[in-house]
From TrEMBL:
It catalyses: L-glutamine + H2O = L-glutamate + NH4(+); aldehydo-D-ribose 5-phosphate + D-glyceraldehyde 3-phosphate + L-glutamine = pyridoxal 5'-phosphate + L-glutamate + phosphate + 3 H2O + H(+). Transmembrane segments: none annotated. GO terms for cellular component: cytosol; glutaminase complex. It comes from Brevibacillus parabrevis. This is Pyridoxal 5'-phosphate synthase subunit PdxT. One of its GO terms (molecular function) is pyridoxal 5'-phosphate synthase (glutamine hydrolysing) activity. Pathway: Cofactor biosynthesis; pyridoxal 5'-phosphate biosynthesis.
């Protein structure tokens, strides 16, 4: 199984390490052509507006919409979840608009810019450690999307078919269970 990590900005190396630990072959993706032989893709955290600009500049917008529409799984973490979302609170436009969720950016406020909690994630475990850094949260999910975790009554992990979104940084701990969960999704969707 070959999984790419979009490598335009953000926490790329850590995702590569976790994906390898979870059992995949992981490669950084810097050019749209490199999507061709991938089974799935991770959109890392960072700054969604910056990553989006670079995605436009390097021809990733249409290429990733095609990738997703072809049924290839995508896992968006933190800024990556914002990039996947069909709706962003307070903004008319979204970025990729592939996943049926609405997100709000920087949703945990200034006092709680960055924190770590242990929480249950459905299908993953009761004690999953999650690192939040200027994190968004998922305001609502569409009819076909599933809520996998909530923190502070806010949705922080959701799945919509072959799309998975986490508001936090699953690559910043030693726990590869959410990456393993994503690899199971990839197996399911691989034809
Ligand atoms: N606050 C960032 C944004 O809005 C996301 C932060 C992150 O990815 N750690 O894009």
């Amino acid at each position: 199984m070959k999984i790419g990590v979009l490598a335009l900005q953000g926490a790329v190396a850590e995702h590569l390490r976790m994906l390898e630990e979870a059992g995949a072959t992981a490669v950084p993706v810097k050019k749209a052509e490199e999507l061709a032989d991938l089974d799935g893709l991770v959109l890392p955290g960072g700054e969604s507006t910056t990553i989006s600009k670079l995605m436009h500049k390097y021809g990733f917008m249409d290429a990733l919409r095609e990738f997703g529409s072809a049924g290839k799984p995508i896992f968006g973490t933190c800024a990556g979840a914002i990039l996947l979302a069909k709706q962003i609170q307070g903004q008319d436009e979204c970025h990729l608009g592939l996943m049926d969720i609405k997100v709000e950016r920087n949703a945990f406020g200034r006092q709680k810019e960055s924190f770590e909690v242990t929480m249950p994630v459905a299908g993953v475990g009761a004690d999953y450690p999650a690192v939040f850094i200027r994190a968004p949260y998922i305001v609502e999910v569409g009819e076909n999307a599933e809520v996998l975790a909530k923190y502070d009554e806010k949705i922080v992990v959701a799945r919509n078919g072959h799309y998975l979104a986490a508001a936090f940084h699953p690559e910043l701990t030693e726990d590869a269970r959410l990456h393993k969960y994503f690899l199971e999704m990839v197996k399911e969707y691989r034809s």
